[in-house]
Amino acid sequence: MAPTDPPAPRTSIPLPGDGLDAARIPGHWLLARLGKRVLRPGGVELTRWMLDALDVDPRDRVVELAAGLGATARLTLTRHPAAYTAVDRNPAAVAALSALAAPGPTVVRAVRSDAADTGLPDGGATVVYGEAMLTMQPETAKRRVVREARRLLDDSTGRYAIHELCLLPDGLDPALADRITADLGDSIHVGARPLTPTGWGGLLAGEGFTVASRATAPMALLEPRRLIDDEGLLPALRIAGRALRDRAALRRVLHMRRVFHRHRAHLGAISLIAVPTPVDS
User: Fold this and answer.
1) Which CATH architecture describes the domain 27-276?
2) Half-sphere exposure at residue 36, Cβ-oriented, CA atoms within 13 angstroms
């Protein structure tokens, strides 16, 4: 984690997945158990690009879908939005998010709910974003989440962003795409269904958005350089030390890294910024 980032708070709140066998726990929660806090495919650099492109400021009412451990929430709160709401369906994540303290007048709250049905009011947000969550959903569920984001956004000032895993290039052979998807699911123990850049753009367009900007990054989640960039040198060393002391966790991490490396030519990270498409009168 860069020195300018707000530190993660020390908390005794259990992490999601605590108590599950390291051989069976979903990969992102295993990494969290080892101490990894940045769990986004493009790392903190692509997250920062996303927040810069969203241009979050003190006038904004922000909703983060599937907010997880709060790494992006802390970056968002340094921009002092008027309000920040975290949505997550995991009770441990909601408990941790509820403990976040804003460094200013921002109203902060965490809601235990599904990203596809938040229960929040229509048009109550100016910014909605989600990271590393649509990838894990089947097509119909992806569309429900994007549709919910559209419902939450103010028509005139609303901005929506995603940060997800993507398949490369556009036009990737479907059989190869299926093989990559199967290998990912086998390694992370969660169904992973990434799309190509065109596929992600088409998903947003189909649910009432116009893509305004796009950025990509390598999928290097478990590469040493990315680990240090995302977490900082000492936290990265601590993560490695914990993995070395837990054989089951180490086997899982090495398996995930082998899969990511095997398909590195066809895996990337993407962030898209979109705005509601005007409805013709």
Assistant:
1) 3-Layer(aba) Sandwich (3.40)
2) 28
